[in-house]
Design goal:
Distance between the termini: 119 Å
Number of domains: 2
Strand content: 25-35%
Oligomer: single chain
Largest sheet: 6 strands, mixed
Shape: elongated
Helix content: under 10%
Length: 345
Amino acid sequence: MKNLTIKKIAFGLLLAGYASSSAFATLTATTNDTIQGSAPVLSKLNGDVTAQTVTVTFTTDSDGNTEIGANDNVKVGDWMKISYRLLDKDGDIDTKSIQESLTVFKRTKDASGNYGAWEGLKADKLKSITTKSEANTEGVQLGYIIFQIDDQFAGVDQIGFKLQESTDFGAPSKNHWLNVSDVWSSAAPVTTENGTEPTEPPSTPAGPGDQAPGKGPIVSDTFKVGIFKYDAQGNLDTKVDYAAAGATNPKYGDKFGAVVWNDADKNGSIDDGELIKTSAYTFKWTLDGNYEGVAATEDVLEATKTTADGDTIYLGSETANHNSIYNTTYKAGAQGYRLKVTTNE
């Protein structure tokens, strides 16, 4: 009887323990997907905070503080600065991810003034590129990317770029691609809605959101203007520069053309592969020097267009005596003076 009682008590405790563990078992659940935050958004620094825009400037210093003039040509040795306000409500930051997404596009007009194909330069092909940013404050981080305009930009007429709204970490850490075809346009960038990376700048005008100061073509101290003679068949002989030391005298009845080119090897002659930029300029012809005690005036000589405005001149007159078309203060027309050409971008 005693053993039976003990067995009943043990069985009761077993049932009680089973009931207790079943009623208060640990329950767990995990979300089907990972936690998402806010996507990073870029906007320009100036004016209204418009999403998917940036600010572009050209400066003469690597700190990006000395902006070039609004109507100045960008020069080799200047710096291009892409500034932005990065908004990420989660506090995620960027140290280099936007820079790593950057591709800068460039294209150049040919001798006839027509644009060639775009060429893309990824960040690792850009000279002295760096990213600088301020500490994140309430989800807003101010930053910029800056790189030097080097010789690979000499003669370039148009600059565009693409970059992606990015932070180093976060979910999502990527957002729109911003695609720009002309940094000197006031239009907004073209953006992708699905994160697909564009292959080249858009065909429609697309600026960064803030029109950059300056203009193209990008000039270099290796750019040179020369004076070349047309032959009897009307072809410009670019082998002999009449502005070079040792060149022969120009003569009445000769026709000359001015040519601007990138004398990359600085040998004073137009070599195969060197970029000719004549079409980007206008030209003014004058006389220079002193003959028989009379200094040349600033009178602009009549010229015509072959490739660019005023690039071609006939020395003397085709319909009257040669001296008659020049300033009457000269002793013998243009004789005894040097022929001079000056460019205006």
